[in-house]
Amino acid sequence: MMTLPGRQERGRVQVLRFIGFKSVSIASLSTRMVPHEAKLGSGAGRSFALCDADLRVSRRSNPAYEPKAKTRRVTMSHNSFGHLFRVTTFGESHGPAIGCVVDGCPPLIPITEAEIQLELDRRRPGQSRYTTQRQEPDEVRIVSGVFVDEASGEQVTTGTSIGLMIDNVDQRSKDYSDIKDKYRPGHADFTYDVKYGIRDYRGGGRSSARETAMRVAAGAIARKVVPGLKVRGALVQMGPHKIDRDNWDWEEVSRNPFFCPDAKAAAFYADYLDGIRKSGSSIGAVLEIVAEGVPEGLGAPIYGKLDADIAAALMSINAVKGVEIGEGFGAAELSGEDNADEMRAGNDGKPLFLTNHAGGILGGISTGQPVVARFAVKPTSSILSPRATVTRSGGEAEMFTKGRHDPCVGIRAVPVGEAMVACVLADHYLRHRGQVGVVEPRWPFGR
Ligand SMILES: Cc1cc2nc3c(=O)[nH]c(=O)nc-3n(C[C@H](O)[C@H](O)[C@H](O)COP(=O)(O)O)c2cc1C
C-alpha cells in the first residue's frame, strides 16, 4: 500500500477508463496500489492491479457500473517457500500433472529419480487398507537441472532449477460431481470460492493434498544438501491414544502401515482404525519429526528463527492444526529447573546437553542437538455420515462423502512432515553458509 504521486494517479485514471469506468476522477480514487504480476494496465510506466476497495470506490462514483469478470483480478502468488533453497509447486488434483521447481540447490549433488521415488512411495496412497484406495503411482520425472558428471559418471545437480513432474493418472471426476455446488464442511471449498470467486471443485483442486507429493519430492533433494542430515518421522498418537515412548524403535516405523515406532501401539491402532474406517468415520493424529545431524548455528535471530520457519512449514501442510517444537505446550507445565537443558563439557569439542527440552533450537538457532518438532493433524473431513452445509447459491444442504478417502490422514502426512523439515534445514544451511561461510565448530572459545 502506498500513496500514489500525481503522475501515477493520472495513470490509474487512464486504466480505470480503459477497463470500463467512464466517470473517474483523481479525487474518487482510493490511494492504494497493489503490485500485480499480470499487467492489467500501465500508468506512468508502472504496472499495477486494482484491488477490491478501488473497485468499490469506483462503483459508488459510477452508477452505470456493470461488473465484468475481466475487471476482477486477484493474485494467488503464494506457491513458493524457502529463500536460497526455494521450492515452488504447481498443479491441481485433477489437472494433467503436478510438479515443482527446486531453485537454489547447489551443484554436483548426486540425485536419481529412484531416490526421489523411494520417498514418494512412502507417501503414496492405496498401500494398506488404512489409507485411501485411490491408485496414484506418483511416478516422478526429473525434467531439468541434472546432468551426468563425467568425472564420476553419476547424475548430479547442475545448480540450475530442478524441475520435477508427476502425471495425474487416477482422476475420477464423477466421484466429485456432487460437490460442485455444495461446500464440504472441513474442506477449503467455501474459502477458495469466497476468496477467488472460482474454484476447481474436482477433488479439491489446488487445496487437495495431492500437492504434498511435490513437497516430498523436493524434500528428497533437500535431504542431500546438508551433509550427514537424517530426518525421520513417526506417528506418536492416534485419536486420544499415545504411544509408549519407552517402546520407541525406529526400525518399527517401516514395519507397520502407521509409521508407528511402538509395535504394541501399532497393533492397537490396527483394530482401532479398522473400526473407524468401517463406520465411515475418521480420526486425527500427532506426528513427530526428528532431524539428526543438524549443524549448530542454523537459523537467525528474531525474524529468521529456525523454529519459526519449521513451524510455518509444518503448518502449511493440509489438515495440520498445531505445531510444537521440543517440549512444546508441555513446557508450560514444567518448572525452570526441569526445563533447563543443562550442559557439560563433552569430549568431542562440543558441549554435552543433558536433555533436549528445547528441541535442538535456542534463540532460533540450532544447538547441534536433534531438532524435534511435532504436529497435530485433524481428522479427515470426508466422512460417510451426512453433515449440514450450505450451497453456492445460498441454500442449505447435507453433505457426505461418496468418494475414496483416508480414515486418518495423519498417517500419510509423516513423509510430508519429514520433507518440509528437510527443506527448511537445507534452506537455513545455505543461508548460514551465505552469511557466515563454512565455519568449523569453534567451541570452546578463548583457549
Ligand atoms: C497426505 C494427506 C492426505 C489427505 N487426504 C484427505 C482425504 O482423503 N480426505 C479429506 O477430507 N482430507 C484429506 N486431507 C486433508 C485436506 O486436504 C484438508 O483438510 C483440506 O484441504 C482443508 O485444508 P485444512 O485442513 O488445512 O484447513 C489430506 C491431508 C494430507 C496431509
Question: What does this 3D model show about the protein?
Answer:
The protein is 25% helix and 19% strand. By secondary structure, it is α+β, with helices and mostly antiparallel strands. Helix 8 runs antiparallel to helix 10.
Radius of gyration: 25 Å
Q: Overall mean pLDDT score?
A: 85
Shape: globular
Order of strands across the biggest sheet? 3-4-5-9-6
Q: What summary fits the major beta sheet?
A: 5 strands, antiparallel
Care to give the gist of this entry?
With 447 residues, the protein is α+β, with helices and mostly antiparallel strands.
Q: Which helices and strands appear, and what pairs or packs with what?
A:
Elements: H1 6-18, E1 42-43, E2 46-47, H2 52-61, E3 80-81, E4 86-91, E5 97-103, H3 113-123, E6 140-144, E7 146-148, E8 155-157, E9 162-167, H4 189-196, H5 212-222, E10 230-238, E11 241-242, H6 250-253, H7 263-278, E12 285-292, H8 306-315, E13 320-325, H9 336-339, E14 343-345, E15 351-353, E16 361-362, E17 365-366, E18 371-377, E19 387-390, E20 396-399, H10 413-436
Antiparallel strand pairs: 1-2, 3-4, 4-5, 5-9, 6-9, 7-8, 10-11, 10-12, 12-18, 13-18, 14-15, 16-17, 19-20
Helix pairs in contact: 3-5, 3-10, 5-10, 8-10
Bound molecules: flavin mononucleotide.
List keywords for this structure.
single chain, 447 residues, alpha+beta, five-stranded antiparallel β-sheet, disordered N terminus, binds flavin mononucleotide
